[in-house]
From TrEMBL:
GO terms for molecular function: DNA binding; DNA-binding transcription factor activity. Coiled coil: none annotated. It comes from Novosphingobium malaysiense. This is Transcriptional regulator. It holds the Pfam family HTH_IclR. InterPro entries: GAF-like_dom_sf (IPR029016), HTH_MetabolicPath_Reg (IPR050707), Tscrpt_reg_IclR_C (IPR014757), Tscrpt_reg_IclR_N (IPR005471), WH-like_DNA-bd_sf (IPR036388), WH_DNA-bd_sf (IPR036390). The lineage of its organism: Bacteria, Pseudomonadati, Pseudomonadota, Alphaproteobacteria, Sphingomonadales. GO terms for biological process: negative regulation of DNA-templated transcription.
Length: 268
């Protein structure tokens, strides 16, 4: 180094420790995980949109830890990567999924300021049961007891769960239960309810205003596990008066947190 000018090697070393390089390492490992064959440096550069010189430096560092291995001019995952994968699998086993879900519920309660629930369907498929909650700190808040049950058709959680079923199954359910009014504005028209479930299927979330109870607005999105199975519905329950004017915001926050929890459970 002279006259304050850094040599290329020093610049590369500094870049290798940058947050951008951490992201590149993750994307690099993901690309190798997704390939059944070794991948050339040129192909990795094209897939990741990253200069070959930058990737070469990262690959050398990963090779030093046996996370990647050079193979006939290309690169594949090394034994260190599989050892790390096994360690992560064991860590996930120790950190039970319910802990990950509850952590996400706390985050959503904090960001929305409202009560957050986890709803699951019963074996008959006619009711949702609230199996966990994180209560809002607001003096005026929606209150529910763990174990309380509500009809699918009148709740955001129920409609979100119904949206994972086939249209034929939804139609059969609605005809079987014969919807009744639980509040003055409860929707009981079968066609309207089917359309509401279809919107939830399309949007990825369901939202109800004054349906299961007067003055309560619910917003829900489904949580999935690593196998793609439905774990339950993440629900934000708020007084309707406070929810008005921020329905879109509540929908976005609920949808994003349900997706984040699903990712933590291994859903891709």
């Amino acid at each position: 180094m002279s006259d304050g000018v850094q040599e290329p090697a020093a610049i590369e070393e500094r870049r290798a420790g940058s947050p951008q390089s951490v992201t590149r390492v993750i994307r690099l490992l993901e690309a190798l995980c997704a390939s059944n064959e070794p991948v050339s440096l040129a192909d990795l550069s094209r897939r990741l949109g990253t200069p070959k010189s930058s990737l070469a430096a990262l690959l050398r560092g990963l090779a030093d830890e046996d996370l990647v291995v050079a193979s006939d001019g290309a690169w594949r995952l090394g034994p260190g990567a599989f050892g790390l994968g096994s360690a992560l699998t064991e860590a996930r086993r120790r950190l039970h999924s319910s802990d990950l879900i509850r952590e996400g519920m706390r985050r959503l309660c904090e960001t929305t300021g409202e009560t957050v629930l986890l709803a699951v369907g019963d074996h008959e498929g006619d009711m949702v049961t609230y199996v966990d909650l994180v209560e809002s700190r607001n003096v005026v808040r929606y209150s529910v007891t763990i174990g309380d049950r509500r009809p699918f058709y009148a709740t955001a959680g129920g409609r979100a769960l119904l949206s994972t079923c086939s249209p034929e199954a939804v139609s059969s359910y609605l005809k079987r239960v014969a919807p009744e009014r639980l509040a003055e504005t409860t929707e009981i028209d079968l066609e309207a309810l089917e359309q509401a479930v279809e919107r939830a299927r399309k949007d990825g979330y369901a939202q109800t205003v004054d349906q299961a109870a007067q003055g309560v607005t619910g917003t829900a999105s489904v949580i999935r596990d690593a196998a793609g199975g439905v774990v339950g519905a993440l629900v934000v329950a708020a007084p309707s008066e406070r929810a008005q004017g921020r329905l879109d915001q509540l929908a976005r926050q609920t949808l994003e947190e349900a997706a984040a929890i699903s990712r933590s459970l291994g859903f891709r």
